[in-house]
Structure formats: C-alpha cells, structure tokens
Amino acid sequence: RKEVEQDPGPFNVPEGATVAFNCTYSNSASQSFFWYRQDCRKEPKLLMSVYSSGNEDGRFTAQLNRASQYISLLIRDSKLSDSATYLCVVNTGTYKYIFGTGTRLKVLA
Amino acid sequence: EPEVTQTPSHQVTQMGQEVILRCVPISNHLYFYWYRQILGQKVEFLVSFYNNEISEKSEIFDDQFSVERPDGSNFTLKIRSTKLEDSAMYFCASSGLAALKGDFGPGTRLTVL
Fold first, then answer.
1. Residue B51: left (phi > 0), alpha (psi -120 to 50), or beta?
2. Across-strand partners of B94?
3. A62-79 confidence digits (pLDDT tens)
4. Which residues in chain A are contacts of B89 at CB distance < 8 A?
5. Which residues contact B73 (CB under 8 A, 6 or more apart)?
6. Which chain A residue shows the shortest CA-CA distance from B6?
7. Does A10 have pLDDT greater than 60?
8. What residue spans of A3-81 are helical by DSSP H?
C-alpha cells in the first residue's frame, strides 16, 4: 500500500460546483496532515493544515478520520482560479513530509 | 512575509558533471529539507537537516548527494556525477518546528543533457 494515496483525477467541474477529494495514508502513527496546492511547474503552497476536529477556511473544509486513515478536502463554490493539483501531505512526526501524487482539478467556465 | 529562496532557477549541466543547488531558508527556521519532483510525478522527499546534521534521508539520497549549511544562511544540495535521470525540479523547504508546515522555495529546475 502506498504511504499516501490519492485519486489523480482529473476532476472537471463547472464553476460554482462543490468538489471533494480524499486521501488515504498507511502509517497509523502519522501526526500531522496538510493539503498543499501546486500550480503547473510551481512549488507546492500550503492550502491548509488538517486538524482532528476538522477545520474550515472560507470555501475550503478539511476533515481527518484517524480510524479510517483518510483525510478529505471539500471545495465549495469552485472558482476558475481553484484549478490546480491538490497534494495530500502527511508527517509522521519524523523529519519528512510524505506527498501523495496529487489530484488534478479543473474548474470550467 | 519571509520566503524561502533558491538559486539558480534553472540549471543545465552535462551528464557526469557536479552541480550545487542553493537555498536560503527562512531566517528563524531550524529544519531544512530537499525534495525533488520529476516532471509529471509526485514530490519526493530527499533529505532533512537539523542542527548541522542529516536527520533523515530517503533511499534516493545515496552517495551521489550531499547537503551542507556552509555559513548559517545558505543550505546547499550537491549532486555529483549527474545522470540523465537526475533531471527534475528540486525544492528546498524549511520549517520552524519539525511537525509543522514546511515553506517551500520556488525550486530549481535541473536539466541533465
């Protein structure tokens, strides 16, 4: 099983739609979880950290399910500018971040 | 807002040559990382560095690679005897605490011919 697994997509959605991505991780000792966004040929940028209680930042909501070892990202009211690759990132408390392959999102006008 | 910077933005080299990729982490950060991303593939961890020594490294980070913090501000990745398959985007990252988010630099695109 891959350390961090994501559906690569692409997810093609119309503007204004709600879209959700899931990510599973294999190491039950994982401690920190993040969603990063990566635009084409650019560096990953932190979108949001994911907390056990779930957290929201504007149109973005992240959830963590430790029992099932998955995290999710929900984007409401999609904008054209949301088109990017969304990277699930996990830290086991060691000195490295493990990246998923990313899920491509394309928001269509 | 402070940022991680990397130079050069693009490095072209001949197979077999040595390259040094440079990074200036955020000044009060303590943990430093190198990642690479081969075109079309996922971001892969190479190495982490704390307190002037390697904390963790992946299986990719073999004897061909080395890291150094030569002067308290720069953090370098040296790749000896480059191979075609070393062509990738190399990202430096730094963080204040190990388990918190890493701030990534804009990357250096390495092309090995």
1. left
2. B32, B103
3. 999 999 999 999 999 999
4. 41
5. B24, B25, B27
6. A43
7. yes
8. none
Q: Say what the pLDDT of residue A94 is.
A: 72
* pLDDT digits 0-9 by tens, B59-76: 999 999 999 998 878 999
Looking only at the bridges linking them, the beta strands covering A84-91 and A32-38 are antiparallel
* Nearest CA distance, B2 vs chain A (angstrom): 14
Q: Cβ contacts of residue A58 below 8 Å, gap of 6+?
A: none
Inter-residue contact B38 to B87 (CB < 8 Å): yes
Q: Is the peptide bond before B8 cis (omega within 30 degrees of 0)?
A: yes
pLDDT digits (tens, 9 = 90+) for A47-56: 999 988 889 9
Kindly provide the residue ranges of all beta strands, DSSP E only, lying in B1-113, ordered along the sequence: 5-7, 10-13, 19-24, 31-37, 44-50, 53-57, 65-68, 75-79, 88-95, 103-104, 108-112
Q: What is the mean pLDDT of chain B?
A: 92
